[in-house]
Amino acid sequence: MRIVVALGGNALLRRGEPMTADNQRANIRIATEQIAKAYPGNQLVIAHGNGPQVGLLSLQAAAYTSVSPYPLDVLGAETEGMIGYIIEQELGNLLDFEVPFATLLTQVEVDANDPAFQNPTKPIGPVYAKAEAEKLAAEKGWSIAPDGDKYRRVVASPRPKRIFEIRPIKWLLEKGSIVICAGGGGIPTMYGADGKLQGVEAVIDKDLCSALLAEQLDSDLLVIATDVNAAFIDFGKPTQKAIAQAHPDEMEKLGFAAGSMGPKVQAACEFARHTGKTAVIGSLSDIEAIVQGKAGTRISTAKPGITYL
User: Mind listing the domains of the chain with CATH numbers?
Assistant: First the structure.
């Protein structure tokens, strides 16, 4: 099978963990141990989130006042290199020496008129208590939004329109390489009035970009790996239930939160509906079982209705 595995930025750096290089590497090691087990006999493309990482770089850049902070598209490119490097190294230590890897900086086109620019929703950076978040928002001109019982900075998250490097990704796959690409939803770019491509101050949703990537690569399976083992209704309540299987029409009726599970469900539904293939939402530590069809929330058009675990 050709499989796209989308690793969530919050799964790579778990909620509330200090944003250290060691913690990120430890979490990536968990993911790569699972991916290594799913690799034999399959073609693999790995995408990943970067919300915590790009937020940290933004804070670090703001602390150095001698120059203007780098824009989010440049910070996104930096995180693609950083996270891709660790994934390559950790996965390479588990697979045969002859398995080739490639991490690709991936430019993704967005629409300048996308309404997301008027309504920031994409959380980046660490979580804060409400008072601290409000103080930082006032000082730095941030938009903030609730994230569970905490708050985070939010930025514009326009929809991906085009993945510019889709052809070299295909070429690398055809030569047997494991490809790491579209990190953080890709580097957001758009054409200016002069017809030149330029970066955009935004963060594209990783899951929507991964769904577009999987569709354009004619993938057999899209795995959206996060820090929970399924999509739930009534999450965090005594009545919560994990969804085992669902048709996209049923999933879309459930109204998942825009800042967390919502984009994952939307991406999975779009991939399933556009391709007739299966998308699965599940835990980073269950990737092997997800590929085997034994874990996660499976979304496809093959069967109507919805079933629960």
Answer: 2-308 (3.40.1160.10)
